[in-house]
Amino acid sequence: MARDSYESPLCGRYASEQMRRIFSPDRRYGTWRRLWVALAQAEHALGLPVTQEQVEELRVHVDDIDYEAVAKKERENRHDVMAHVHAYGIACPGARGIIHLGATSCFVTDNADIILYREALRLVRKKTLAVMGNLADFARKYRALPALGYTHFQPAQPVTVGKRACLWLQDFALDLEELDFVLSSLRLLGSKGTTGTQASFLALFDGDHEKVRRLDGMIAEAFAFPSCFPVAGQTYPRKLDSRILNLLSSIAQSAYRFAGDLRLLQHMREVEEPFEKGQVGSSAMAYKRNPMRAERICSLSRYVMANALNAPMTAAAQWLERTLDDSANRRISLPEGFLAVDGILDLMLNVTDGLTVYPAVIEKNLMEQLPFLATENILMAAVKNGGDRQALHEVIRVHSMEAAARMKQEGAPCDLLERLAADGRLGLSMAHLRDVLNPADYIGRCPEQVDEYLSEVVDPLLRREGAERLSARIEV
User: Fold this and answer.
1) pTM value?
2) Apex CA 288: angle with CA 287 and CA 289, to 5°?
3) pLDDT value, residue 284
4) Which candidate, 140, 126, 141, 239, places its Cα nearest to that of 172?
5) Nearest to 34 by CA among 94, 92, 112, 102
6) How far apart are CA 37 and CA 59, in angstroms?
7) CA 281/CA 274 separation, integer angstroms
8) How far from chain centre, in Å, is Cα 449?
9) Residue 210: exposure state from Cβ atoms within 10 A (0-12, 13-18, ≥19)
C-alpha cells in the first residue's frame, strides 16, 4: 500500500478482494483482449481475411499485458484503447494488422463493462442470499419471543423479535427479485460501430447484412449472453447503468433500514451487534460498546444511495449518438457503487451472524409498557364484571395519564396496575390484572407469520439456490 498517495478507502478498507479483482486493471484490460479475440474469431468464421493462426496468437497473449508500453503510447496519442491496441500488437506481431478490425473503442470498453458488471452482480447476489440465510436463522430462533413494538418510535402493540427480523429479510428478498431481473435482462453492446449503424462491418462483409447480424450473435455467444442490444448509438443504452445503480441503492436502503433498527435496539440494550474481546468502543469512555458495524453500514449505504444519482444524469444527457462526458463519471460511479455494496454486504454477513439478544431486557422493556397497551383488555374484563363501559373508560384513562406523568416527571416505575387494582370501580384484583398481562396474548400471529414466510417463501428459495453460508471478517 502506497503511503504517500491517496488510495480509495473502498479498496483499502471496505470492499473484499474478490470484488476488487473484478474491477482491477488486469480483469478490465484482459477482458478487452478477450473481446478482440472473440471479434477476430467471429470475423475468421464469417470469411474475412483473418486466419486461425492470428486468432490463436491473440489468444495466447491475452494476459501478458505490458502496462509500461501502454502508458508510454497513451502519453503520445492520448487514447487508452489505441494504446492497448498498440501494446497488443507488439505482443502479437503476426496478428497486429487485424486487431480491432471494424470496431470502435466502445466495442471493448462497453462490452467489457457489461461483462464485469455481470460478474459483480453475481457476487452481490451470492452475498445477498447468504445475508438472507442468516436473517432467516435469526427469525426462526426468535419467532415467538415477544418484544415491544414501535410506531413513530413510540411504544405500540407487541411483536416478536423473529417477526421484526422477517421485515428486514423481506426487504432483501425484494432486492433479490430486482437483482434477478437486472441479471436476466443484461445484453452486450455487440459490434455496432462508431454511431451504431454497423456501417464499417457492412463494408467489410461487402454489404452482407446477414453476416453483420451473425457477428453480433457470435460475440454475445462467446461470452454467454443471450443477445446484444438490437439498436444502439456508439454506446450501450446508459439506462442500463441506471438500473444497476438503482439496484445497488435498493440493497443499500435495505441494509440501512436493518442497521438503523439495530442501532435503536442496541441503545435499548435489547439486541447488539458483535463486539470482539479486545475491541475498544471509545478512546475516552472505556465502558462504551458502540454499534460501529451498524454505523458503518449506514455510512456506506448513504454513499451508495447518493451515488445512484449519477447514472440517471448520464442517461439523460447522451447528446444524440453519444457524448464523452459520461466516461470519467462512469469509471468512478459504477465500480465504486459495487465496491461499496460489497463492503456493506460483508458487514451484513458479519453482523447478522453474530447478533446477541437479551431476552431479560426485552421482557423488562415490554412489561413496563404492557399495562398501557393492555388497557383495552382490562376495560373488557371490567365490563364483564358488570361495569359501565363509558364510565370505566374514563377511569382507566385518568389513571393511565397519571401513571405516565409520574414515570416521566419522577422517573418512577409504572404503577398503573396498582392504581387500577386499588380503584374499586373496576372490580379487578391485582391477580386478575396480572393474568391480563401475558405477553403471548398480544403478539397476534407473529410466530405463525414467521413460520409461514420462512417455510413458504424463504426456505424454498434458499434451497433452490443452494445458498452458501458465508462469513466475512471485518477490519475494525
Assistant:
1) 0.92
2) 120
3) 47
4) 126
5) 112
6) 6
7) 12
8) 25
9) exposed
Q: What SS3 class is residue 443? A: coil
Judge contact between 276 and 476, C-beta under 8 A.
yes
**Whole-number Cα distances in Å, 359 to 32, 147, 263, 352, 363:** 56, 9, 17, 17, 6
Phi-psi region of 323 (alpha: psi -120 to 50; beta: other; left: phi over 0): beta
Q: What residue type is 96 in one-letter code?
A: R
Please tell me the predicted confidence (pLDDT) of residue 286: 43
Going by pLDDT thresholds of 50, 70 and 90, the confidence category of residue 283 is very low
For the residues 301-330, what does the mean pLDDT come to? 91
Length of the chain: 476
User: At residue 271, what are phi and psi to the nearest 5 degrees?
Assistant: -140, 140
Type of residue found at 167: L
pLDDT range class, residue 282, cuts 50, 70, 90: very low
Q: How far apart are CA 249 and CA 255, in angstroms?
A: 10
Res 353 pLDDT > 50: yes
Which of 282, 429, 455, 471 is the catalytic position? 282
Grid look-up 497488443 returns 88
Which residue among 152, 184, 267, 283 is the active-site one?
152
Closest CA to 267 of 354, 358, 344, 353: 358
Residue with cell 409504572: 414
Helix residue ranges per DSSP H, 319-386: 327-352, 359-373, 375-384
Q: 33 burial class (0-12, 13-18, 19+ CB within 10 angstroms)?
A: buried
The region that residue 283 occupies, defined by phi over 0 for left and psi between -120 and 50 for alpha, beta otherwise, is: alpha
Tell me whether residue 227 is one of the annotated catalytic residues: no
Look-up of cell digits 416478536: 160
Rg over alpha carbons for the chain, rounded to the nearest Å, is 31
Whole-number Å distance between alpha carbons of 453 and 464 = 16
DSSP per position, 193-260? -SSSS-HHHHHHTTT-HHHHHHHHHHHHHHTT-S-B-SS-SSS--THHHHHHHHHHHHHHHHHHHHHH
Beta bridge partners of 188: 228
Element (H, E) at 137: helix 105-141
Contacting residues for 154 by C-beta, under 8 A, at least 6 apart: none
Contact 357, 161 (CB under 8 A): yes
Mean pLDDT of 424-434: 86
Do the beta carbons of residue 445 and residue 324 sit within 8 Å?
no
Is 209 a catalytic site residue? no
What distances in angstroms separate CA 13 from CA 20, 26, 149, 472, one per listed residue? Answer: 11, 21, 36, 13
**Cell numbers 447503468: residue:** 241
